[in-house]
Write a structure and sequence with these properties.
With 211 residues, the chain is an alpha+beta fold. Helices cover 14% and strands 35% of the residues. It has 3 helices and 10 strands; from the N terminus they run αββαββββαββββ.
Length: 211
């Protein structure tokens, strides 16, 4: 996990490099008594990565058109990666680390992830975004050096199969996008467009879930 786990657990492992051969229980010591995990640092900055996209909370929460109603029994959108929207960031970190997710860093309102799976794809970067009411959005990012719509098209088709045709679409010079809503207030957006990263042109596919 790029050093995150070590920072959170400390550097000491029983019986290694401590110069004795005592077994647990010798000298009156019992495992777990008097030992507490090192406190989690308030922030862990993610390492520099040349093609990490700008990762920031979605500019706005999309709203369905006036009078829109979900068609049929489309799924509700309550969370992502096993986390429920509204979860506190400390609870989320405990869950992500214990579940083996690659936590790349965190602040007080964002958790950075690496190589995280969503919609049958591995996304190079991911971010969980937190507001006053806990987790409220999550974005997954994947960039390529060339124009390649394969991932966008495949994820788009999967979302159509689950949620129906998108409620809104956009097609502007340099980017395309679509938005779906679940059977509640949850939403999904998918976009593809050109971006400049580290002075080079890249093409970025972004998948966002929010409430």
């Amino acid at each position: 996990m790029d050093g995150i786990q070590e920072k959170l657990e400390g550097q000491h492992r029983p019986g290694i490099g401590n110069g004795n051969n005592h077994r647990p229980g010798n000298n009156g010591h019992r495992p777990g008594i008097g030992h507490h995990p090192a406190p989690r640092p308030p922030h862990v900055a993610p390492p520099h990565r040349p093609y990490r996209p700008v990762m920031a909370r979605p500019h706005h929460r999309p709203m369905p058109p006036r009078g829109w109603r979900p068609a049929g029994r489309i799924p509700v959108i309550r969370g992502i990666l096993g986390l429920t929207f509204g979860s506190a960031i400390n609870i989320s970190l405990d869950y992500l680390l214990s579940s083996g997710y690659n936590v790349d860093g965190y602040t007080n309102d964002i958790v950075y992830l690496r190589n995280v799976s969503a919609m049958n794809y591995v996304w190079t970067d991911g971010a969980l975004y937190y507001g006053t009411h806990g987790l409220d959005a999550s974005s997954f990012y994947y960039s390529t050096p060339r124009y390649d719509l394969a991932r966008y098209n495949n994820v788009y088709n999967s979302l159509v199969a689950t949620y129906g045709m998108p409620v809104s679409v956009s097609n502007t010079p340099g980017s395309i996008g679509a938005t779906w809503f679940g059977g509640n207030n949850g939403y999904i957006t998918l976009s593809f467009g050109s971006n400049t990263m580290n002075g080079r042109l890249r093409y970025l596919t972004t998948l966002t879930y929010g409430l």
